[in-house]
Specification:
2 copies of one chain form a homodimer. Chain A is an alpha/beta fold. The first copy, chain A, has helices at residues 25-39, 56-64, 75-83, 98-107, 120-133, 156-166, 189-212, 228-231, 343-347; strands at residues 20-24, 45-49, 69-72, 88-94, 112-117, 137-142, 171-177, 219-222, 239-240, 270-278, 284-287, 302-303, 309-314, 319-323, 335-339, 352-357, 360-366. Chain A is globular, with a radius of gyration of 22 Å.
């Protein structure tokens, strides 16, 4: 069942029950504005990734600042956005299975919906589902631009798949999905640029080959928070799919900018507020947020603005702290903000966002697509 | 919002939408029966840990086989069990914060509820909440039996805390919580025994010192799936708190039994059913279950009964497989069972269990306390 919200608007932050997923609304809005300002001069559009936030409320705030739509990874996420009024949704992923395709095609009646493929069998299945639903579906070809995960080989294989889409009665060829996920957390700009240069070349070459076959390529989509400034300056990408920029996390904070400074483009706006629930001896303090509440796939969380305290161990429901000196040990009942190691899966653990400004709870937003794996 | 169930009873397993949390009901019932049979001759009781399953349905199946009650880690889990009719619940953890204590005390009107402490301030807070609610609360003293997480030092410090409980008007001293979590996944029996011997000695010594002060110790609780056979033979522990035994996982499967054989006491009964959603080239296959769906804190999942296939990389919603030879490569759309690396946090990602027997869906059970972090 849905968990009850851990706060009510008007409460002080220290009255929020924990663990709670807290948004610093000032930092969050700074991030929304900053991305819009960075992309405006490039002419490249933002199609923000909703796998990060899973919220039609946040999607609308992005679109109010110029985002042309949203990406999702899953049909269940697309449903939540479409039902929440988001008009333009790309499933930046393959969708396999008749049940999921029927759900996706049903959404095409209330929103502009598109999906990716990397195999002819997927094209046939989507064509059948679209015919069955009596709709037309926009389909992008995903190309493998270096991550060796999903996607066909750039060039002729991608062109052949695009032709198959364009030749299907109920399908529209929408363009290329060209996301290089493994570049996002390379620590230096030079490393990220090396990988994205390959992705840009592969995309440009494929677009040219499509044109030679008479196929226009309306969308070339990709990029994440770690690299969008490279893709958006490439002249070939048309849509940026960054998601994490709204929140940031401890793993993105380990990236460096040009010159070697830590990244400062966006601010940490997402926190897991946690309480010291055990402090039996001065050297030990245990928080009530373990790895069920804070994702540890990309490293442990850090403790916000407390360089004297380290989160050193996560079990299911316990977070063990290491305290620099006895004088700074957090007290039983004290509340600390954690910066998640990885924002996306941390968000997916919670039913509610608690929006905070100037120390007070301003809003509650549901994590509406939480657990939307289908 | 709650996700829709991925199946309906009567479906074939290969019709279940994925990713889905699947229980092999035969293996699951084998585990329930086996634990009951193993504990019966010892006279030690099972108070199964519901942090694993988060389900009043499964709790009732455990109690129908002799379990005297359930453990939980969180008040939100205790609520779900109490509302679901479970009569005897121990929060095997500290509960800090007035809101949580008020919720816990409210449950004492519909179930027998107990909670642990490791600090005098917690005793005072529970006394105040119990007085406020007009109930009496049973309180156990958690002792640190070697894991260096929560718990007071065994011996005089524990006795002093017990006396403080016994001297509180609205509290009842319930006994000792003596769980050694860090022993559960030591790979050899000798390693596990060495650690549990320390826990047993510390518990015995503390019980004796309590008796010397006139304090009876009704409960000495602890143990997990990795060690309960040691604690249950100790003559000092009275309640076993194993949880994972109902499902098992890939991490527990890496433990060895006496003589060096892999553990075979319980069977794998929990799986994440997943679909191959991308297979662009014969050497690559990608599943639709990444680390949002399958917890990776204790290692990657394994592929059930497919030694030729390895799950080698998890991103948010993708699971990358490495295939031994081209002939055995799973096909696009093929469904595979994953054995989660860690059962507890994997369960906590899903809204529904799908119970399967003889290849057919027999039941749907909600993961009722999912996300119950409060």
């Amino acid at each position: 069942m849905l968990q009850s919200p851990p706060a009510i608007p008007g409460m002080r932050e220290d009255e929020i029950d924990t663990p709670a997923l807290v948004i610093d609304l000032d930092a969050f809005e700074f991030n929304l504005d900053r991305m819009a300002a960075l992309l405006a001069p490039t002419g490249v559009k933002l199609r923000a990734h909703a796998k990060t936030h899973k919220s039609p409320v946040i999607a609308r705030l992005q679109m109010a600042r110029g985002a042309i739509g949203q990406c999702v990874q899953k049909v269940a996420e697309a449903e939540i956005l479409a039902w929440g009024g988001i008009p333009d949704i790309l499933v930046s992923n393959q969708v396999v299975g008749a049940q999921k395709l029927a759900r996706l095609c049903a959404l095409a009646r209330i929103a502009k919906v598109a999906v990716c493929v990397d195999h002819p069998l997927q094209v046939a299945a989507i064509e059948a589902a679209a015919e069955d639903a009596g709709i037309r579906m926009t389909v992008l070809v995903e190309i493998d631009v270096g991550a060796a995960r999903c996607g066909v080989t750039p060039g002729p294989e991608a062109v052949a798949l695009a032709q198959r889409i364009a030749g299907s009665k109920h399908l529209i060829f929408g363009g290329l999905q060209a996301y290089q996920g493994s570049a996002q957390h390379k620590r230096t700009v030079a490393e990220r640029r090396t990988l994205i240069d390959v992705a840009v070349d592969a995309s440009r070459r494929t677009v040219e080959q499509l044109r030679q076959q008479g196929l226009d390529c309306p969308i070339v989509g990709g990029a994440g928070t770690g690299t969008f400034q490279i893709e958006s300056a490439s002249g070939i990408y048309t849509e940026m799919q960054a998601g994490s920029y709204v929140f940031m996390d401890a793993d993105y904070a380990r990236n460096f900018e040009e010159g070697g400074a830590p990244v400062s483009t966006f601010r940490h706006s997402l926190f897991v507020l946690s309480t010291v629930m055990s402090a039996p001896v001065p050297s030990i303090a245990v928080l009530d947020a373990g790895h069920k509440a804070v994702a540890v796939d990309s490293g442990l969380p850090t403790v916000w603005q407390r360089p004297d305290i380290r989160y050193v161990g996560a079990s299911d429901e316990h977070g063990k702290l290491e305290v620099g000196s006895e004088t700074s040990a957090p007290k039983l009942g004290e509340k600390l903000r954690l910066v998640p190691g990885h924002c996306d899966p941390t968000v997916d653990r919670f039913d509610w966002y608690v929006g905070v400004r100037n120390g007070r709870v301003e809003c509650l937003w549901p994590v509406a697509a939480r657990g939307g794996f289908a």
